[in-house]
Amino acid sequence: MKHKALISALLVVTFIGARAQVASHGPTTVAKAAPPKASSQQSVAPQVSDRPVAKVNGSVLTDRDLLREMYAIFPYAQQHNGFPKEQEPAIRQGALEMIIFEELVYQEALRRKVTIPPQQIKTAEADFQRQFGSPDKYQEFLKVEMQGNPELVRQKIRRSMMIEEVLKTDVGDKSAVSVAEARDYYNKHPQRFQQPESFSIQTISILPPSGADPSKLTAQQKAEVRKRADDALRQAKAAKGYQEFGVLAEKISEDDYRVNMGLHKAVKPEDLSPDMLKTLQAMQPGSVSGLIPVQGAYTIIRLNTHNPAQKMSFEQVEKPLQEELQKEKYEKLRSHLAKQLRAKAKIEVV
């Protein structure tokens, strides 16, 4: 459930900052990791001072709230000494918008007098405690971050669940997409579900000597390449099935696909040379071609599948299409809710 992730991000990240502050009694670097690599990849190490970053109808949001959301957007920051320098402003702005939105939703929940059953809060609190791994670590958290008061934890859990309840009512429940709606979209957008012709193939390639100009190969070089290609073809023809051909490709092929058993998952006709396309169109799945000359090199192809151009059936796309349409609907409803709440709120970015 969403409230679990929200509570975890809110409290655990805050706890990291608080522990560092106790040691330094001042603004703190929250995440420590390996030093940044190149200048373009330099990181901005986050600092926490509990200074206000925004006010929403008088309620103060701090840089600690902001940092919690920045970590939610970019969780790798704790491993890389902060946020990528070039991305940090965008991450910060996105996080600021999110914490303002959460506060607006929370205030709306208060206005509606949303209540959370005590048993749900108790269950969520137990789930949260288990994230610390041991009772001692949880008690340390309570002492440092919550003044030893478990009720403060429950207040934050209650807040998170109240936010979730409003989002469920105004966004989640209304964003459901029925099978009939998905089918209607499918019928109105037929081109979206056209699958172009494609081939799934494996290749073994024998190339000219490294650095040699294919157009200027000597007769001896050409003969040497052809000899290696004939030997590769003999072994390829003897290979039984996808696995054996793939192992052989990894062993003797000289193209970049050798590291993946020579596999090209879905190749469109326009991406193939005329000779390759003509060869593939005459092959049956599971068969192996002869040598196909390509600019001084030779390629051997195993055809796995030939997928003709066709329209995917509704049954093939039903579930992913429903999920896609539901996500789009969810975001539109969430955006609409945000606009409604902002329209009647006083928001100050500090």
Summarize the structure.
The protein has eleven helices and 13 strands. It is an alpha+beta fold and 350 residues long.
Q: Main traits of this protein?
A:
Chitinase A, domain 3, 2 domains, four-stranded antiparallel β-sheet, Triger factor/SurA peptide-binding fold, single chain, three-stranded antiparallel β-sheet, 11 helices, 350 residues, elongated, 15% strand, disordered N terminus, alpha+beta
Strand percentage lies at 5-15%
Return the structural class.
Answer: alpha+beta
Distance between the termini: 32 Å
How many strand elements? Answer: 13
Biggest β-sheet: strands ordered side by side in the sheet: 9-8-11-10
What report would you give on this structure?
- The structure is a single chain.
- This protein is an alpha+beta fold.
- The chain folds into 2 domains: 2-178 and 325-349, Porin chaperone SurA, peptide-binding domain (Triger factor/SurA peptide-binding fold, Orthogonal Bundle), CATH 1.10.4030; 198-307, Chitinase A, domain 3 (Roll), CATH 3.10.50.
- The chain is 53% helix and 15% strand.
- The chain has helices spanning 2-24, 63-73, 88-111, 118-130, 135-145, 150-172, 179-188, 219-238, 241-252, 274-281, 314-343, and strands at 28-29, 43-44, 47-48, 52-56, 59-62, 83-84, 194-195, 198-206, 263-267, 292-294, 297-307, 310-311, 347-349.
- It has a 4-stranded antiparallel β-sheet with strand order 9-8-11-10, sandwiched between helices. The protein has a 3-stranded antiparallel β-sheet with strand order 5-4-13.
- α4 (118-130) packs across α6.
